[in-house]
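Reopening this one. Same input as before:
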Amino acid sequence: MTALADMMRGAASTELIRCRVKLIICSRRRLSKMSIAQMPHLIRSASLTGFADLAQSAGIDPFAMMRKVGLPRRCLDDNETLIGMEALCRLLDHCAQASDMEAFGLRLASRRQIWELGPVSLVIKQERTALGAIKTLLGYNRVLNDALLARVDEEEDVVVVREELILGKSVPTRQAMELTVGVMFHVLRDLLGPSWEPRLVCFTHRPPRDLRFHRSFLGKNLEFNSAFNGIVCAASDMARELTSTQAGLASFARRFMDSALNQRKPARSETVRHLIAALLDSGRCTVEKVAQHLGVSRQTLHRQLSLEGEQFKSVLDSVRREVALKLRDDSDHSLEDAASMLGFSSASAFAHWFQASFGTSFIRSRRARQRETEEQFHVTGDQ
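Same output, byte for byte:
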């Protein structure tokens, strides 16, 4: 059990926490000295809490799977070890295929506890409302999971928590996405009580063959092949006042989180990548609009990207390719829907871009991918 877990149970000393925090900051400073090209997307190894037990219960060797994606066994012993998000995505995908457990990522989320978020779990407990707590949590994304693009949309009687994983390359993310949304669901239920229910839980991918676990954990209000990943909540629930605890330790935890946040300054191209992903489905994802969001001129943005060996169009195409392959592989969205979600003016414009980018049509590519997946499934099932 970690020192933070003991602290949340009222048994850990502040001095122990300070010592642990110093170790975390040192590891992040070492990472901050890496070049932009070297910097991977990182997430705390707390994301693997319960992984070994879940894998073994599914009949697979967790440590062999970890070796397969290059993750050391020791990262299971310390929640604060930073691991590559790409490796985590591949690990969960391999495990889901090997075990034929489509809800592998979601099952892993169900084993998480809020204190495993680290010091930020103390910080969000000090917010007055659940809405404030979630906004604070998302404000520290760069420390917790810098591949996660998340935002809160407030719309009349609902609050929508939207989440998307943007890694800058084609990586299977279905399982990691369900883990991410599942953890957010866990946080909201911890804040609002065990009887809280969301209005809707949304995933952009197609539904699994068996929905029983999804329904038992997330409830019956599910939407697959949705326009976004995330959770729709009643605004009245999110405005509910919370009971604050551990004020002194929370203040210390906030200072630590702010310090850690300053150690993880994103490259300008990564900031642009996240803005593009956020604006993509609006149809207004232009270099002028992104520059406006950043408070700089178009010329300044071009110059900043050029210093990192990037151009706006190359970053835009990279995000579009990543999202397009997710829609092709994991969803049943039509050509028209995919075009809209990628910010194209028409289905024909998207079809032309996809053909130029991948050398085949969106529909033919999807059919080929489905055949490939079915063949992999049969091979796995025969082993």
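So the earlier flakiness isn't reproducible anymore. For the record, Strands lie at 42-44, 82-84, 148-155, 158-165, 200-202, 222-223, 229-234.
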